[in-house]
Amino acid sequence: MSKLEKLKPTVRLSIMNPDAESGSLFGRGIASLCLGVRTSGSLNAAAKGMGMAYSKAWRIIKDTEAALDLQLLNRDGAHGSQLTEAGDRILDAYLAIEKKLQKQAEEEFARLMK
């Protein structure tokens, strides 16, 4: 196996609102935060799990919500956070598309490296 065949492509997906004035996108970072909230029930725990300050995670969520014009999280103060229905749907769609594109990219890369 050549050194080239050992390499692996990485797909970077983002979801945007074409009408938004902001450059904020739903990408890997937001998806990771949302997954953390889904798992832990807390934005603070999700942020800590990523080595990120809660204030930064909060700002990223708010900026993305504004850019997408939808609410991703329901926040209940000391009782944690949970994804909204829209947050769940966009996260699930993002993960499914990313998985499919990643598989296709790996197959195409392997084909081209032969």
Number of domains: 1
Number of strands: 2
Query: What order do the SSEs take from the amino end to the carboxyl end, as H and E?
Result: HHHEEH
How much helix, percentage-wise, in residues? 55-70%
- What is the count of DSSP helices, taking H or I runs of 4+ residues? 4
Q: Flag low-confidence runs.
A: none
Proper CATH architecture: Orthogonal Bundle
Strand order in space, largest sheet = 1-2
Task: Write a compact overview of the structure shown.
The protein is mainly α. The chain has one domain (26-109): Winged helix-like DNA-binding domain superfamily/Winged helix DNA-binding domain (Arc Repressor Mutant, subunit A, Orthogonal Bundle). 56% of the residues lie in helices and 5% in strands.
Task: Annotate the secondary structure layout.
Elements: H1 28-40, H2 43-49, H3 54-68, E1 73-75, E2 81-83, H4 85-113
Antiparallel strand pairs: 1-2
Helix pairs in contact: 1-2, 1-4, 2-3
How does this structure look, described?
The protein is mainly alpha-helical and 114 residues long. It has one domain (26-109): Arc Repressor Mutant, subunit A, CATH 1.10.10. 56% of the residues lie in helices and 5% in strands. It has four helices and two strands; from the N terminus they run αααββα. It has helices at 28-40, 43-49, 54-68, 85-113; strands at 73-75, 81-83. The protein has a two-stranded antiparallel sheet. Strand 1 (73-75) and strand 2 (81-83) form a beta hairpin. Helix 1 crosses helix 2 and helix 2 (43-49) packs across helix 3. The chain is elongated, with a radius of gyration of 17 Å. The protein starts with 27 loop residues before the first helix and ends with a helix. One of its GO terms (molecular function) is DNA-binding transcription factor activity. Residues 37-87 form the HTH lysR-type domain. This is LysR family transcriptional regulator.
